[in-house]
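Input chain follows. Return structure tokens only.
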Amino acid sequence: MIFEGVVESAVLMLREVVEWGIERDEVRPEAVNGYVSDVMPGLVVYRSKVCGCEWRHGEVEEGVHP
């Protein structure tokens, strides 16, 4: 239930955001892969919960843009 309600929806949302970036030529096409879908949510959780800080503007983009 947690996977379907939380994890799966977050991964789908992230994939959609990356695909929008590809359409606008802001994200390289190879950024849509299973690694990005797995790693980015983990980085967000780690940064907010373990480090106690938020992402600054542009830092998420740096993860998927050259």
